[in-house]
Design goal:
By secondary structure, this protein is α/β, with parallel strands linked by helices. Helix content is about 40%, strand content about 15%.
Amino acid sequence: MNILICANDRPGHYATGPNAWLQRLVKDLVTNHGLNITTVFLYKGKLKDCPTITYFKSEGLPISLLKEKNLPYVADQVLALLKIVKDLDITVVIANLLVPAYYATPYLKKAHIPVIGVMHSNDAFYRGVIEKFIKGKTENQLTVSVSVSEFIDKLSHNKSSNTQLEIIPCGTPVPQIKASHDETEVLEVVYAGRLEVEQKQILKLTKAFCDAAIQDSRLRFSIYGSGTAQIDVEKIIKEKSKSNVNYMGAVKPSDILNCLRKHQVFTLMSDYEGMPVALMEAMACGVIPVCLEESSGVNEIIEHGVNGFIVKNRTQDYLKHLQLLLDKPELQRTLSQNAIKTIEEKYSSFITHQRWITLLRRFNNQTVKPLRVPNRIRLSGNLLHYGDNRKPSLKEQALRQISDNWLKIRLYVRPRARLRTFLGYEEKP
């Protein structure tokens, strides 16, 4: 069985749960379980600045590379991906956060190569993937869809679909050294993840941290991560310089557990989530989750008052629960122990990786046919929310050329306009 996992990377792309999961999963399955896995990366920017590719190279894990600058259109990316599948005699493809991997599905299925899609979130992108590649035309339907949460799995259900549905959270290692909850005078709170406004609502989270720290000096907050809102995050913190809030920068997946265990509380204030890797990592360290209520993975893993808290708003209810933990150290220790137990019983990397091995071994004896790589890929239907850069049609290219060169065309077809331009006159409107 030759497995191809599809992913993407770019410079500074540290604070992403799916890539942290990818690093841990592939290393474990290749090194400890002997699976034959190649990971193909569609990357942008300088190769040396792509963190996940750098990690794979340092660990000697097999990779194949596609440069987005050389393949700007999805159709060309699909062709390049199919050629890799053919050259490497791939028998199973895992479409993980890579648009061309989903669009390659009908060509792979014709060769009896199963395609496993990974659904990391319930955002607009994945809702589009579900509609097109699970509930859509039969030839486009994934062989298996792996959702990281029960909520996403429910979104994927469709009686007329042939796609098999599985639930496998990304999971996390469980470290030996855990967070300390002996200190009662100060409560250390942490956020780790992407610094983005969409979904993560990082600016609202930063303001909530600053406001809480001003209201109660016993609270200290740290923000780890990178993203498009980094400058705005630092600006908010600077404007409220008297608050105990600090931006700590981005952290490699290999170092994040060591950073998290220095805190007592972990907070997410996202609009929506899949099953957040950072949340599982924090709970594995015994860091208590205090997160904003939302409809997906957060509500599945946190049992309010048992292994953490789910709060109703970013203001008073949030502050009230932080102060409750400050005033009741015994409650801190109980919630911390229950958080660790939750991960050990359901969400550890050991458990989730075993479930991936079981899934992949279904295709151990898969007999594939020779893969036919077409000369041209034709894409149709609605665009996915991002990454679906379609090649313009000949008509669209012609219209774009006309638009870009309209003045030259106008001067060519109107001699008087050419003369006026030469003499420096402007035409009256």
